[in-house]
Amino acid sequence: MDNRGEDRKDFAKRSFRKNDGERGERRFERSDNFKPRRFDRDGERKDFKKDGFRPRGDKGNGRTRGLGELLDLDNDILHLVIRRAQLLAKMRQNGRLAPETEKTIRTAWESKAARMARDNRLSRDLFVLLQTIEPLTRMEEEQGYFNLAPNSESVDIRIPAPSDTVAARLWLAVAAAAGQMTKVVRMPLTDAVINGVKALNQIGGQLWWEENGDVQSRGGKGLVRNMDKVIHIGDDAFNLWLVIAMCVGMPARLKLMGDSSLRFLDLAPLRHFLPQMGVRLTNVIPSQDGLPIRLECSGMMPRQLRLSDDLPEDFIAAMVLASPFWDTPCRLTLPEKEPRLLGQVMGVLSTCGAHVTREGRDILVERGEFTVPAEPVVAMEPTVAASVLMFPGFNGGNVVLEGVWGHSKAHVLVEKMLRGAGLNVKYGASETVCSGKERETSAPVAEIMAEVVSSCPELLPLACVIMAAAVHEGTAVTLPELSEEDRHLVTAFLVRCGVEEEGGKLSTSETIIPGTWVAPSAQWAMAYALCAFLRPNLNLSNPGVMTGLFPPFWNMYNTLPKPVLKRRTEKEDEEDAKPARRRVIAHGVYGELPPEPTAGEDF
């Protein structure tokens, strides 16, 4: 008999729900009086009410007064930031400021911000951040939040698992560079995938996509030499690494542009490294290390090149992938820390018939007889697959994901974490099946958490869900060692899910945090949706973040227990709503009609 008064032999029948006497009877109340702060178009401020802000005019003692004044200043700063964003939105045409206008605003900012801090980088980053803020539309303000209230019945899920978009882009980049035909299926058509296809097409690929998720290469002549183009990358850094790696080995002049998130990308290590390859990288905006940039490539490659330790690891993997397509063979010396995608890159090159020679950290890839498979095998996306496989742990049931389970580091870590969560998961050749929970939940051990933080930070939200589930079941859980930023994010996430941290120990909490939560990424949004099984009616303010990873997720979540991925159109709903057509059998002057056919339409 365990400390929760249940026989352990019956534990396999329990769900991740907290043991509160009767399953499913617990309800969490939330305040209906809470209203988020809003800023009207005319700049009129509407203050927060009953959310911790000190009312203006409340003197208080010296300590309280100082805190209240600070909160008031933050209130005013946010008000000014929104007003600034609204003015910028009015000045933009087709989503962009005129170059002379942006230059005037930037130079005026730099001249006045010089007195703010000794570090000029801080003022520059603050300016870039302010430029990227977009005010909410009136519809978004009125929408408020997305209430997470999942169905409590046992699930019956059978869906095609989305392919890993990074692995798929490796195959598409090779097909575009080699000018060969191939097809990748089950691709979620996210902005990163669409922008990656467009960028590869501009450097010589002939790719296109279908609405069903198939992305195909029609062959072509391969990479284009002596290019002089402007290429838009989007907001995914991996697209940038692929384009740079493919182009540095041949004569080219490029201007690379991207969305706001890539303006903060630190390209200084590339700027110092690329001259060894006869490449010059310059920033279009002075004193800014991110995009936009200009790239001038001579095509004069050295015979051997050492990749420095400060280069992004995904860029190093992209360099190995692109090396057989350069004009000159080049032996690459890897840094001490091996890139996480190197195994997948080596597998792609070997499957295509490239001659790969590796001696320690030295890699030489020669093109040889290069043949891209007509339909390469791409594993399913590990974070999406893991989140869907977690559903039977809460309410029971079965999940079947159609697709191939991978062997990358992320897939291996997911296997260990799901096993620790007590789930019965079987990984087959063409599908992965979870048939429910077979034992008690254990939080990820320290070794797994260390690997997650260092190699696969996108799995940290999944680890938080498993920790929360273990705490709700009554298991003693200790918060793992995390950086200050990760620790703040994890504890803020857990307290909304009914778990609080005190002295490194996690325990259940009755505290209801008012307001909504903003998910930092799609993985955090999925984790928040799973924790709604533990504490219902969680509020998420940015459900649209899922479009960057798996757009049909919310349609699947809202149609449980037997979900569908495709949303019904208005035309389909209207057709179903129409009454069935009546058949009128005529007699009399028309004579006796022949009997109706047993099948088909009658005309």
Characterise this structure.
The longest helix is centred in the first third of the chain and has 30 residues, at 62-91. Helix 15 (460-472) packs parallel to helix 17. Helices cover 35% and strands 15% of the residues. The protein is built from 19 helices and 22 strands. Among the domains are: 38-142, no CATH class; 165-366, UDP-n-acetylglucosamine1-carboxyvinyl-transferase, Chain, CATH 3.65.10. The N and C termini lie far apart (72 Å). The protein is α+β, with helices and mostly antiparallel strands. The chain is globular and about 65 Å long. Residues 1-9, 19-57, 582-594 and 596-603 have low confidence and may be disordered. The strands form seven sheets. Strands 4-16-18-17 form a four-stranded mixed beta sheet. Strands 8-9-11-10 form a four-stranded mixed beta sheet, covered by helices on one side. It has a four-stranded mixed beta sheet with strand order 12-13-15-14, covered by helices on one side. Helix 7 links the parallel strand 8 (227-232) and strand 9.
Under CATH, the topology of the domain at 165-366 can be stated as UDP-n-acetylglucosamine1-carboxyvinyl-transferase, Chain
Level-1 CATH class name of the domain at 165-366: Alpha Beta
Radius of gyration: 28 Å
- What does the average pLDDT come to? 84
Please specify the SSE layout and strand pairing.
Layout: E1 38-39, E2 45-46, H1 62-91, H2 99-113, H3 120-132, H4 138-143, E3 146-148, E4 155-160, H5 165-178, E5 181-184, H6 191-202, E6 207-209, E7 215-218, E8 227-232, H7 237-247, E9 252-257, H8 268-273, E10 279-283, E11 293-297, E12 304-306, H9 313-322, E13 331-333, H10 342-351, E14 355-359, E15 362-366, H11 382-389, H12 392-395, E16 397-402, H13 409-420, E17 423-427, E18 431-437, H14 446-455, H15 460-472, E19 477-478, H16 484-496, E20 499-502, E21 505-508, H17 522-531, E22 538-540, H18 553-558, H19 570-577
Parallel strand pairs: 4-16, 8-9, 12-13
Antiparallel strand pairs: 1-2, 3-22, 5-7, 6-7, 9-11, 10-11, 13-15, 14-15, 16-18, 17-18, 19-21, 20-21
